[in-house]
Every structure is written in structure tokens, then in C-alpha cells.
Amino acid sequence: MTAVAAPSPAVDSRGRGATSVFGNLFVALLAAGGVAAAYYVCVLTTIGQKADTLAMRGADVSHPRFVEVMQRALNGTTLVSLVAICVAAALIGFVRRRKDLAIAAALLVLGANASTRLLKTYLERPDLDGTGMPNSFPSGHTTAAASVAFALILVLPYAIRGTVAMIGAAYTTTIAVATVWAEWHRPSDTVAALFVVLAWSALASAVVRLGRVRITGVTARPNRIAMWIFGVVGALSAVAAVVGFSALALGEHLTPDLVSGRYVFAAGIAAVTTVVAATFAIWVRLAAGDRPTPAPQPESPFAGGTP
């Protein structure tokens, strides 16, 4: 008895072609807009500056283990370690015979860190909170941590990208929290750094897609476990951030100094965690689209079988 051939599943070409290139460019523009929005709200407005500075100065945590972890994280993020990981990412790309990924990884790391340095040097910070502190927007440490994590996600084999993304997100969050805890940066500095990295990563991904625009195949989906974890963590931390800053705004109108600095620090860290989860989730999705899997071949109508 001849078996009826199953219909061939439709080829999922999403993420490929010219549309995917423009999609990545759109993400890059949105991320750049996030940098501009963070600068306007947290640097150019009085209430934004006050909340940002209060969050930074509220980190009066003296737990020995916490202090040790934060100090090690900051001390481990150096120029030497950044260069070493960049070289390793490039080598992985060449070993996998994906020179385009190696070049894209270098582009996103160098572009993001150079942009952060330029923004920090030339952006002005008006003294609206009465502290007279110089500009620290965006965070160089957070940019370095996130950019190398994004580079590794891009060049490593697809099967382990989800795991690497979760490890990279945890490390980036630790660095971002450590810079705020050490009063090197305000929460907005780290948020802006993450948007800078995402902008350059999306741009680098667009370059990769442009070079492979004619390659057909089924676009691989991002790691579901990683996306689920990023979604849950991002949603919970977003709620905490909204509640925290809403309480601060309400307290400013009713009873000044009602909300403690430590409370605002926790709200700021929740906001940072939200942006880390969101940017890493977006990047995992963009990077997953790079992997074309073979399109399913239709089964021959003459194939025989037994019931």
C-alpha cells in the first residue's frame, strides 16, 4: 500500500532577504533613540538628574561578600581583558569559516566602545541637581562588558548561543550594578551603554545579512529557554522599577525625603536589569536569524511504505 506523501512545510524565510537588513537597521535606530531619550530625561531635566544621583548615592551596602564580588567584577573588566576577548571572538569566526561574523564582532565592539568614549567626552551635563559632578554618560565598563558578550553570542555556534547569552547577561548586570554601587556611574549611564551596544550590534548584524541576502533556507528560531528567562526577569524587574520610581515621584510631591536612597537605588538597579534583559533578548533574536538551516525537501510522491 502506497503511503500518501505529507505536504512539505513552508519555508520560513523571515529574517532573510532585504527585509531583514532594514529590520536590523530599524532596531539600530530605535536603540540610538533610547540613548538620546536617556540623555534627555536623566541628564537634561532636573527631576531626572536628582533621581539618577539619588539612586547612585543610595548604594550603602556593606555586606562583605557583596563588596568582594563587586570589586572583583570591576577589577576584571580591563582593556587587556577586552582586547583578549575580542581577539578570541575574531579567531572563533575565522575557525568557523565565517569571516563576516568575525568582522561584524570587531565592528560592534570597536564601534560601541569608541562611541561611548566620544559621548562621555563631548556631551554636556548641566548642574541641575546641585552636585557639580562631571558627565559620566554613558558607562564605559558596561559598554565593554555588554559588547564582548554580544560579540561572543554572534560568533559562537548556534547551539550554545542561548547559554552564552544568559551568562553574558548575568555578567553585564553585575558590572552595571558594580559601577553604580561604586558611585562611578548613575543608572542612566549603564542603560545608555546597553543601548549603544545594541545599536552597533544591530548595525553589524545588518552588514552580515546584507552579505548573505541571497542565501535561502529556514531561519532558525532563538533559544526558547533564554528568551523565556529574559522575558520573566525583564517583566518582574520592570514592575519593580515602575513601582520604585512612582513612589519617588509621589514622595517628591507630598513629603520630600520620604523615600530612602537605598530604595531608589533598588529601583535604579531594577531599571538596569530590565534593559539588560530586553537588549540581550533582542540580540539573541537578531543573532539567531543569521543561521540558515537547510530547507525541507518535499517527499517524493512515489515513495512507498507499509501501513
TrEMBL record:
The keyword Membrane applies. Keywords: Membrane, Transmembrane, Transmembrane helix. The chain crosses the membrane at residues 21-47, 73-94, 101-119, 139-157, 164-184, 190-208, 228-251, 263-284. Pfam families: PAP2. Coiled coil: none annotated. Residues 101-205 form the Phosphatidic acid phosphatase type 2/haloperoxidase domain. Gene3D superfamilies: Phosphatidic acid phosphatase type 2/haloperoxidase. InterPro entries: PAP2/HPO, PAP2/HPO_sf. It comes from the Bacteria. The keyword Membrane applies. This is Phosphatidic acid phosphatase type 2/haloperoxidase domain-containing protein.
